[in-house]
């Protein structure tokens, strides 16, 4: 069970919920899956519902004639969006960035950090291994 305020780490977030569909045949199961995905709403956490909605609409998935390279071949940088959808996605990204910035603790300046912290930051920015 998940309760409000519980930490959702990347190790466990795919386990929050599963959607299992069955029907007499594949076309009926795909239709039920599409409807279930369209009726599913999750608030407060990022999900992969959009990806699954896209996948269900792929002809190869619907026919059962897909392979492990389908996503890499067809998804690329995401589904094609019309101008309105791109605008909504851009506004959502801006809002998410604002929310993250508002929730983040104030950044410290280099003068506020110790010499060790400044050295570690420089090494990280250069891609160097930290000194031991």
Explain how this protein is built.
49% of the residues lie in helices and 0% in strands. With 132 residues, it is an all-alpha fold. Helix 1 (26-39) packs antiparallel against helix 2.
List low-confidence stretches. Answer: none
How many DSSP helices? 6
Based on DSSP secondary structure assignment, what is the total number of beta strands?
0
Structural class: mainly alpha
Query: Taking all residues together, what is the mean pLDDT?
Result: 77
String of helices and strands: HHHHHH
| Rg from alpha-carbon coordinates | 22 Å
The percent of residues in helical segments reads 40-55%
Précis, in short:
This protein is mostly helical.
Which short descriptors sum up this protein?
single chain; mainly alpha
What's the SSE blueprint?
Elements: H1 26-39, H2 49-56, H3 59-63, H4 70-74, H5 83-103, H6 115-126
């Amino acid at each position: 069970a998940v309760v409000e305020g519980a930490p959702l780490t990347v190790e466990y977030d795919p386990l929050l919920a599963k959607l299992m569909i069955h029907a007499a045949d594949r076309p009926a199961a795909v239709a039920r899956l599409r409807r279930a995905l369209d009726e599913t709403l999750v608030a407060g956490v990022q999900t992969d519902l959009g990806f699954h909605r896209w996948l269900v609409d792929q002809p190869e998935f619907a026919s059962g004639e897909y392979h492990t390279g389908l996503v890499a071949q067809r998804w690329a940088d995401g589904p094609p969006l019309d101008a309105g959808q791109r605008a909504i996605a851009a506004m959502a990204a801006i809002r998410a960035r604002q929310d993250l910035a508002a929730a983040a603790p104030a950044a410290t300046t280099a003068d506020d950090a110790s010499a060790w912290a400044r050295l570690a930051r420089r090494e990280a920015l250069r891609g160097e291994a930290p000194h031991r």
